[in-house]
Amino acid sequence: MLTLRREDDGKPLKVSSGGVTLFESSALDSSAKEAEQGLLSDSDFKKYYQMRVEIPETVMGTKYPNSEGFDVVRFRFEGTATEASACLYNWSYCVRGYQDPNKLKSLKVEGQAVDLQSGSYTLKLDSAKDTFNVQAEIEDSKGYVAVNGKAFEEAQDAEIELTGYSRKLPGGSICGEL
């Protein structure tokens, strides 16, 4: 995932590695269908957006050990011959859980603690409401909580919109960055 600044709309950006172009745009557009919230919090999404960039195995195979002994892959970020590139705000690494499994430590919905012992959570919610405050804590504090692919800050209340006629709470996942 590339995290880009909305203020850079209209600027060019090309990302390549070992002569292979991974992403190229002559004019970035934060309103394009490929632009997404991804792993950004709601507050960050106001200034930034993310674009998915797939890195082929051939590029990953060009890794080499850096001065600290870690395998790395070099990437090149550039604009055009006449225009500077957009700024890359952040590069999201491939992610996996810090702990295996990395699970919920606590979950509160509308201020009420949810019993996590069973591994399955049945919540009785007011059918007249469309949103509910949810607060989650995970075992690994360096990880994050995502619901429907949208990350939120687990230390703060989050508004999760219910979808569909069934009014069931959307499924969630627990992730972490390595």
Largest sheet, order of strands side by side? Answer: 10-9-11-14
Overall pLDDT confidence: 75
Main pleated-sheet profile: 4 strands, antiparallel
- Which ranges are low-confidence, i.e. pLDDT below 50, for 5 or more consecutive residues? 95-99, 164-169, 172-178
Order of secondary-structure elements: EEEHEHEEEEEEEEEEE
Proportion of β residues?
A: 25-35%
Q: Counting H and I runs of at least 4 residues, what is the number of helices?
A: 2
Quote the distance from N terminus to C terminus: 15 Å
Measured as a percent range, the helix fraction is under 10%
Round the Cα radius of gyration to an integer and report it.
20 Å
Q: What is the structural class?
A: mainly beta
How many DSSP-defined strands? 15
Q: What is the molecular shape? A: extended
Task: Give an account of the 3D structure.
The structure is a single chain. By secondary structure, this protein is mainly beta. 4% of the residues lie in helices and 34% in strands. It has 2 helices and 15 strands. The strands form 5 sheets. Strands 10-9-11-14 form a 4-stranded antiparallel sheet, with no helix packed on it. Strands 4-1-8 form a 3-stranded antiparallel sheet, with no helix packed on it. It starts with a strand and ends with a strand. The model is unreliable at 95-99, 164-169 and 172-178 (pLDDT under 50).
Question: What keywords describe this structure?
Answer:
disordered C terminus, 178 residues, mainly beta, 3-stranded antiparallel sheet, single chain, extended
